[in-house]
């Protein structure tokens, strides 16, 4: 008769924690990379004109907000899991790759603000993070990985909450073809859109899963 390894649960817990710690570290690195573009302009007559780096400041705070919101989504998702597997590790790596790529389109939008190509490039980059997160949610919400109290939660809510930011940025990418300035103004709707999809997700999650 095959005996169960008494240390298997401990090892699974350690592996899961390593995945979470690694993910948090990648988010921290991505946010740190945003700061590297922020340098004081040369002073003129002893006065520093910060308006010269207004575009870079805008890019920093925008991407900091976007990455922070995606970290909150990731934190919420992994809070409902009890273990990991190879599929989750792979999906998580793809998601983290899209996150740590964001400092590059941030540099582009800071250097060439309000041009059609830079706005579309930035918007699609942010939307790609949302797409990767959606795939990660699908992979993570398998019963074998879920914590016990998450198994009776309806799956619809989990599928809704990652959609706020990517929807805003996809719409802005289309708008940018006609008016890149208006497209950039739409980005201010990101936080309200994330709040709305989280609210909808929480309400849908209260419905028990079918079956």
From TrEMBL:
Keywords: Ion channel, Ion transport, Membrane, Potassium, Potassium channel, Potassium transport, Transmembrane, Transmembrane helix, Transport. Its main location: membrane. It catalyses: K(+)(in) = K(+)(out). It holds the Pfam family TMEM175. GO terms for cellular component: membrane. GO terms for molecular function: potassium channel activity; proton channel activity. It is a multi-pass membrane protein. The chain crosses the membrane at residues 21-41, 53-72, 93-113, 119-139, 160-177, 183-201. It comes from the Bacteria. It is found in: Membrane. Belongs to the TMEM175 family. This is DUF1211 domain-containing protein. It comes from Phenylobacterium montanum. The lineage of its organism: Bacteria, Pseudomonadati, Pseudomonadota, Alphaproteobacteria, Caulobacterales.
